[in-house]
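Many introductory courses stop at the sequence. We go one step further.
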Amino acid sequence: MSIRTRTIALALFLALLGTALAACSTPGGTEPTPTVSPAATATAEPTSAAQPSPTPEPTPSPTATLAPTPTPSPFPTPTPPQPAEPITIARADTTEKIVALTFDAGADSGYVDEILDTLAREGIHATFGMTGAWAEQYPDAVRRIVAEGHQMINHTYDHPSFTGFSTNQPPLSREERIATLQRTEDVIRQIVDYDMRPYFRPPYGDYDDSVMADIAEAGYTVNVLWSVDSLGWNGLTAEEIAERCVTMTEPGGIILMHVGSQSQDAAALPDIIARLRADGYRFVTIRDMVGR
């Protein structure tokens, strides 16, 4: 292209460019829309990373609430039985031919083994008036008496007269009476498991209303006397003892004998048993007779 041609072209270009610029600067022209800077997007406060929601505990299915089992009303506390009325027995009020053989043990061991042998051979249970002092001296005899099914009754510890009548001594006080009974109980319980209550035999047979009241307070409500005394302790022979016991016995009778060596009661016993049995008598203990 020639220089001339280039010059013309350049002039045309510049003319066109000027026209365009003039149009843009024309006051009546449309005002260019300003470019709105993009509004800053509000950034939310940073949130902590989402923590996993805890797995909810499964709600247990409601279970039926059982009605509480009613506590049974306790049985009313029974009124304790009133102590039995104290009684004194020398012979049972009966027409039945029953008799109780009783042996007091307060001196030496005497013939206790012979007596027990006879009773065992004859199949008889008897009753023994037991002093605590004797039991302390002869515990094996006490064990045998109980083991062979015989009854024991409290005859005090050392055989004092509760009223003083037979010993010409002042009567024992209430405390002394109860103490001698308790001491005997303690001795017996150290030897065997046995309770002699409510049976008591007064030494010498001495008693009165005050004695009955005092022994009842200690749990003894049966005062055991006798309807026949063998009098073996008074020197009678075995034959005399047997004759006396057999002829004096009545239905419900209580025969008093002793285990000590001073008496021939043990020697008379087989004859007494044979003759009374032949007469239709049955042998019982005081417990059997009284029923307490």
